[in-house]
Amino acid sequence: MSLTVNLISACITTLYFILPAYFSNASGLLFGRGAPVDFGKYDKNGVRWIGNGVTWKGLIAGTLIGTLTGLVQGYFAPEILQNYSQYIITPIIVNIGNGIIIGFLLGFGALVGDALGSFIKRRIGIKRGEPAPILDQIDFIIVALIFVSPITGFNSIFIIISIVLTLIIHLLANTIAYLLGMKDVWY
To answer: Which of 7, 15, 107, 151 could pair covalently with 24 via S-S, beta carbons 3.0-4.6 A apart?
Structure first.
């Protein structure tokens, strides 16, 4: 196979694999109204630990969506990962059970990563809604990959493709949402 075909295959497989993290992260925002995960607590400097944007409802709903996404992947299209896994990850047998586990780890990991990103932003003085380039875009995917890595074994190509795809998709999605009037800022 040519390098172009290999790269396209690797990108498609990577995107497919990390869908539970993407869906979880997006659904956490959609269902995120309610009690904040930090219970409204402030640190000794009067700064919120995380903020109102990360809620228990969003965490639970997002984790469920990520888990369900993994279940669907394990049931309907596991061959996508099995056919191309030699390019990007340690080969894994994908079935419903593994799909659920992978979906849960990616989904929950994505939301923990988002919360960790919010925590870091507050510690360095960035308020909710203010931009933190790179951190805002990749916090969720990095932690999701860390959570699932003990059972999948990624190589560096997979990680690089995951981060690059996430940066591109995040920028495109937010720009479209801004142009449609769904967001106040393009980032």
So the answer is: 107
Q: Is residue 17 part of a domain?
A: yes
CA count, 13 A, side-chain hemisphere, 181: 0
Tokens of 124: 């360095």
Tell me whether residue 133 is in a domain: yes
Q: Is the pTM higher than 0.85? A: yes
Residue 187 belongs to some domain of the structure: no
Domain that holds residue 141: 3-180
Task: Report the distance separating Cα 187 and Cα 127, nearest Å.
Answer: 15
Q: Which residues contact 5 (CB under 8 A, 6 or more apart)?
A: none
Distance, C-alpha 182 to centroid of its chain: 21
pLDDT digits (tens, 9 = 90+) for 97-113: 888 999 999 999 999 99
